[in-house]
TrEMBL record:
The lineage of its organism: Eukaryota, Metazoa, Ecdysozoa, Arthropoda, Hexapoda. One of its GO terms (molecular function) is transmembrane transporter activity. PANTHER family: MAJOR FACILITATOR SUPERFAMILY (MFS) PROFILE DOMAIN-CONTAINING PROTEIN, PTHR48021. This is Jg18129 protein. InterPro entries: MFS_dom, MFS_sugar_transport-like, MFS_trans_sf, MFS_Trehalose_Transporter, Sugar/inositol_transpt. It is a multi-pass membrane protein. One of its GO terms (cellular component) is plasma membrane. Coiled coil: none annotated. Residues 30-464 form the Major facilitator superfamily (MFS) profile domain. It is found in: Cell membrane. It comes from Pararge aegeria aegeria. Pfam families: Sugar_tr.
Length: 502
């Protein structure tokens, strides 16, 4: 009886505290997430910037002379540099925390843009891109983890989907500024995203799960309630988080590093999410997610057969991608993750094969001259499909799928797959376009997407609406534990209703 009175007093006290908060929990979460989102806008600009940089440097009066080999390295070296950042990320996330890792990741990217402004030869351009890639590697591992840990389950989908919107926005920004401004001036506009990101990250708290994992339980409570308020569901989730970490701290034995990591890789809650994310990021890259922004102009020139001006077709692609990114934020929050992903895969594969067929028919003279531009329609449909499902869902799943104890390591390993595929796909794209054309390249992409999609159909669970702890229990095979959490929540709600009625 005494415990019930204490709980009633605690509940009413929390309600009073909640009434004192001038800003809603949603807006606080939005503030915390916005710093990462601004970084991802910069990442989109980084990926798309070669699309305008290389076009300007091909002009006869260019300040820097490039060979075709230089061009392919400038576009693809981000992928290699990402590896160094991603290999560093698990250590930073585990030892320094999410917030400090996010802050540190802005520094090399800012240095890269600063070096780009003063570049006078291809080596300086490659160094600047390498610095940008290193920072992007740190953030590639930190971004989905940070957003997921800042967000309430009901908002997590839209916040994680905002990564897709951020990429699309950054690509549009880079191409618009690169079209109307000199490439050095455009670099200032793109680099400013990281300044804003650093400011927003610095005024946000550390994530509650990281604080709990380090035994800083009072700080965890403070951060969690600042972000999520004091409602019953949030308090229940907070107590589950704290109790789980307290038990983990008490029961974790001291073992050698070798045995520690060998034990981890055999745990289903680690290797299952890791395999899923490796397929996810292979799917992400073979869909042309980073190839298209880097080579939009030559790709669209072949698709349109020169009937639409190259920069106009590039901006058409950017606008479709931007609008699709906005739709993705809405759809991911409304529909199941699996539904959105496989819808995006279906649209993408169908559009790629349709574009290829039309291009082959045009080459054989079966499409009249006035209609040679028609492959543009399925090409834009392809951009829509991959931005709707293939772009947001891998990042949404990456933030949700790894258990707290292995979140840093899992993000690093899956991010390594992302960076390797980034380099391979972007580096081989010019050769592929030259040897088999856009039509042949699209056929290969469509086949690879279909294979990855088939594997994910059987491997990927639904995560929408579940807490991070419930997702962890799923991979551990502890369905009964999830049921007990739901039962306890129902009992708690009934008890509170009785108290209110009394």
């Amino acid at each position: 009886m005494a415990e019930k009175k204490i709980e009633i007093v605690s509940t009413r006290s929390m309600e009073c505290e909640q009434q004192k908060q001038p800003v809603s929990p949603f807006l606080r979460q939005l503030l915390a997430v916005s710093g990462v989102v601004m970084y991802m806008i910069g990442t989109g600009a980084n990926i798309a910037y070669p699309g305008v940089l290389l076009e300007q440097l091909r002009q006869p009066d260019s300040a820097v002379r490039l060979t075709p080999e230089h061009e392919s390295w400038i576009a693809s070296i981000l992928g290699l540099a990402l590896i160094s950042g991603i290999l560093t990320a698990p250590f930073c996330l585990q030892k320094l925390g999410r917030r400090l890792t996010n802050q540190l990741s802005t520094l090399p990217t800012l240095a890269g843009w600063a070096l780009l402004l003063t570049a006078k030869d291809p080596i300086a351009l490659l160094l600047s891109r390498s610095l940008q890639g290193f920072g992007m590697g740190l953030q590639a591992a930190a971004a989905p983890v940070s957003i997921a840990e800042y967000s309430a389950p009901k908002h997590r989908g839209v916040f994680l989907a905002s990564i897709a919107f951020s990429f699309a926005t950054g690509m549009l920004v880079a191409h618009v500024f690169g079209t109307i401004l000199y490439w050095r001036t455009a670099a200032v506009a793109c680099g400013s995203c990281y300044v804003v990101s650093l400011i927003l990250i610095s005024i946000s708290p550390e994530t509650p799960p990281y604080l709990a994992s380090k035994g800083k339980f009072n700080e965890c409570r403070k951060s969690f309630r600042w972000l999520r308020g004091f409602d019953v569901n949030s308090e229940k989730e907070l107590e589950v988080l704290l109790n789980t970490q307290k038990k983990t701290t008490l029961t974790t034995p001291k073992v050698s590093k070798l045995k520690y990591y060998s034990d981890i890789v055999r745990k289903p809650e680690f290797y299952k999410p890791t395999v899923i994310m490796m397929f996810m990021f292979v799917l992400f890259q073979v869909s042309g997610m980073t190839v298209v922004p880097s080579y939009t102009v030559p790709m669209m020139s072949e698709v349109t057969d020169g009937q639409i001006e190259s920069y106009t077709s590039m901006l058409m692609v950017d606008v479709v991608r931007f609008v699709s990114g906005i739709i993705a934020c809405i759809v991911v929050n409304k529909l199941n993750r699996r539904t959105v992903l496989f819808l995006g895969i279906f649209i993408t594969v169908a559009s790629l094969f349709t574009t290829s067929v039309l291009l082959y028919l045009r080459d054989f003279g079966y499409i009249p001259d006035p209609y040679k531009w028609t492959p543009v329609i399925p090409t834009l449909s392809y951009i829509f499909g991959k931005t709707l499902g293939i772009l947001p869902i891998p990042w949404a799943i990456a933030g949700e799928i790894f258990p707290l104890a292995y979140r840093s390591l899992g993000s690093g390993i899956s991010g390594l797959t992302l960076s390797l595929m980034f380099f391979v796909v972007v580096k081989t794209a010019p050769t592929s376009f030259g040897a088999i054309g856009v039509k042949g390249t699209f056929c290969i992409y469509g086949l690879c997407i279909s294979i990855c999609g088939a594997f994910l159909f059987f491997l990927l669970p639904e995560t929408k609406g579940k807490t991070l702890y419930e997702i962890e229990c799923h991979f551990k095979g502890l369905k009964d534990k999830i049921d007990r959490i739901d039962t306890c929540e129902k009992d708690r709600m009934l008890e509170l209703e009785k108290v209110e009625e009394g």
